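For homework, think about our next protein:
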Amino acid sequence: MSKVKIYVLALCSVVVLTSCDFLERNKPLVNEVGKALVNEIENARQSAEGSHEAAAPVDGGDELLRQASPDGLPEQMLVRTGYVTSYNKTTMLPNWVAWHLTADRTEGPAKRSGVDFQADMDVPAPRAEDSDYYGSGYDRGHMCPAADNKYSERAMEESFLFTNMCPQNGNLNRGDWNEMEQACRRWAKSYGGVYIVCGPILYKGKHKTIGKNKVVVPEAFFKVVLRTGDNPKAIGFIYKNAEGNRPKGDYVNTVDEVERITGIDFFPSLPDDVETKVEATADIADW
């Protein structure tokens, strides 16, 4: 909607509404002019908002952080200091969270002690809140872990937003999932940096929910890791949202397999030949 068109409609409205005689004799026309003005202004507002969202920057233009979600999946993109997340207002969970973990980001002055879990006011209500987890039997499971954000106090604080959380089995969160997070930090130091994407897996059927806001409980979680450079490699992992104590190799899947299960196209900005090669195989021995 052009500004000129809005101004013309507005002028017509003023002329119409300031003439009592005209108003009385042409009520249908007056109503139509008013409706047209309101509709055009609303369309212009929505168009501007859509353009702004589409133009949102991704970590300095790092397109490897932008994943391709399945068509029709509710998605609100949120760009944070330490990660990018695709938020789903229906499940009140992230569809996925992506970040670039480098060696220097694993160390720094920021501490998790004293940082509170927070509802994310950038997403529409109803939204996940701390009270939803009380007595639920589930941990507030970070997707992008706090320990990957030690380099910045702001990044640390933003890692505690509920748009970066999922209800997670406590044994998994503090056990095998935590061990994988530690492995990713080691890989970041060994290879100069890794790209990580993780999130919930929701199988078909009815899902369990927690709290008054009915936050969905995932049936499983995925994590994919990419290292670039002269010898790029990628690997995927799938964890059931349940207790377990198994070696990392038991959770290994190719990225192609994780894509098949989730419907997400990971790292679509990679050159096609590189993407095809690294996503087709997975060997924990390569890491």
In short: The longest helix spans residues 27-54.
